[in-house]
Amino acid sequence: MKRNDLPTLAAASLTGALVAFALPPWGWWPLALIGVALFVRIMTTSVSSSPRARFALGFVFAASWFAPGMGWMWFLTAPGYIIAVVLFSAFHGFASIVGTRARFPIVGLVLAHTLAETLRMSFPFGGVPLASLAIATASSPLAELSRLSGPLFVTLVVWILGAMIATSTRATWARNVVAGLSLVAALLVITHVGPHAHNLDISKRIAAVQGGGPQGTLAINTNPRDVVERHLAATKSIDDSSLDMVIWPENVIDVDDFYSSVEREEIAAEASRLSAPFVVGITEDVDRRYFTNAQVVVNVDGTLADRYDKVRRVPFGEFVPLRGLLESLGAPVDRIPRDAQAGDTPASLRVGDTTAGVVISWEVFFSGRANEGVERDATFIINPTNGSSYMGTILQTQQIASSRLRAIEQDRWLVQVSPTGFSAFIEPDGTVHDRTGVSEQRVIVRDVPLRTGRTLYSRLGDLPLIIGIVAVLLALLYSSRRSRA
After folding, report:
1. Closest CA to 455 of 56, 93, 150
2. Which domains does the chain have, with CATH numbers?
């Protein structure tokens, strides 16, 4: 880079910071549109610059977005945080090169950067789909568009709107604003008249139990019985004979074998007292190398019913990729002495006479996991989670935003429950009810309407949109190459 490029790099960094502060916990979502628009303006005025300069602009933009937006990862793995920010920023660096080589660079940038986000949601190690533009706009009207084609479609629309703002002049500003608002309005109309779910005229009265306790704790440094005691104390405060189920968070019970444990007996006693089945998060030993992370239904008589083992595991949180290599390099892999064993069952649980979709913790960031349960006739969704390992609320607030997106996409109620926060009930339109505070001990109770039917996104998934974006981008690149020949 040349010295006279430094002001442009600084400007690109500022645009990324604007996107970062659109994310929860800051949550000023219009900044996402402004940040993207300013970045596109910078890129379209730098088309003639070298590929190295264009890469640098995209990299700096994304690094300034991801460094604060993914700050939660520092508490999980500091080296992993640095590597993730660098790698994902490089995706957007290459997207800036590819996009500006297209026949219409502004269109190429929109498509290439959307694909960069698509790649980040699946690679490497299963992807890290946090700090996304969809999460940033979860509290905006744009979130409704996820019913059409999921979070990637929301990302694409944000880039399109940003590009429209970026290309506005004093003469065309009003026209472009009207065009942008008309586009969003038309898409929202399609969303509301398209396929959607409907109520079954049946509700389930659900209690979600948050035991409370400190944040910033690791399983290896925590007495698991303390967590159980806090949740038992909260549960014993329930005095409601009309409950249909009680939900405990992810892995609040850590035992060798749950069925033979005193914890199952204690849960059974509470299930009998309340005449309601419990859905509890358990961690069990498999062997010296593996453990399981599951959500289990405990019947009123204490017997065990359905079970779901977590499929999507947290890289460097529940399993260590390249463990042998990292260990040889002196990395602190002993913080995660064993890997979680991935489950292989559908993302649903039969609870009494209804089916619930279930996405355990990390899985809520992957839209396909929630859809898998709805495909199997889930009438609502539960997200038992555990964010107690992290300080602050970056991860927890982004998880609430992701739960809102999953509820909207599937047109279902969603119940999120965590040991230390946040727990909440979320309506199909994304409205959040009864959100708890961090570290608070609290039981939240609500009648949750059961719903059936599927949205367009539930039926189509992400693939058609991805194929369409790739096809158009390739066509623009091919056309540009032929015009230069």
Report:
1. 150
2. 3-195+462-484 (no CATH), 199-454 (3.60.110.10)
